[in-house]
Specification:
Aminopeptidase; globular; 5 helices
Length: 175
């Protein structure tokens, strides 16, 4: 087996110019994608919203966003192009979202994920998200339940230690 060189990616704030690429990822990732104007509105008018993109060279390969609601950073959307999954892109993106949450002085992070999306649930688990409840029939395409996941306080020593290890795992320039 030949070792692959580290994947070089950058995580940057989402801009309006990124919306077409983000919408392409959205359509490739979800049965009922957000319309592109929703991303434009989030960037332009939602003061609670903070969105990031992941770039590999000039290609946008992932994106994610959160809303800061009082002391909670709620991950609203998170996706990686199918051909870029399982290569560390999602880990780099989640680490960057956690850094945004820390910068905003959020106390916790939360999200919803399909019960059937085991790879995403495993990724979120690595970042300290734990199941705390269900939203019955949350997804309108098939009525699937959403698993609600949340972290312990993100500035507490246990989460700080976890983030140190995750920074080692994902590195600044690796995927």
């Amino acid at each position: 087996m030949v070792a692959r060189p580290p994947l070089k990616v950058r995580v940057e704030p989402m801009r309006l110019e990124d919306v077409p690429a983000v919408h392409r990822i959205e359509r490739a990732s979800f049965p009922i994608p957000w319309p592109d104007y929703a991303f434009r509105q989030e960037i332009q008018t939602n003061r609670l919203a903070h969105y990031l993109v992941v770039r590999a060279g000039h290609e946008t390969v992932g994106y994610g966003g959160l809303w800061l609601m009082v002391d909670e950073a709620h991950v609203t959307t998170f996706a990686v192009l199918p051909e870029w999954r399982r290569r560390g892109v999602g880990g780099r993106l989640m680490l960057a979202l956690m850094d945004v949450a820390l910068d905003l002085r959020a106390r916790f992070m939360t999200l919803e994920v399909r019960l059937s999306n085991r790879p995403a649930r495993e990724l979120y688990g690595r970042f300290g998200f734990k199941p705390v409840g269900l939203r019955p029939r949350y997804y309108s395409d098939n009525g699937e339940d959403a698993l609600i996941m949340t972290t312990d306080p993100i500035a507490e020593p246990e989460m700080t230690a976890r983030l140190v290890e995750l920074r080692r795992r994902y590195g600044e320039d690796e995927g």
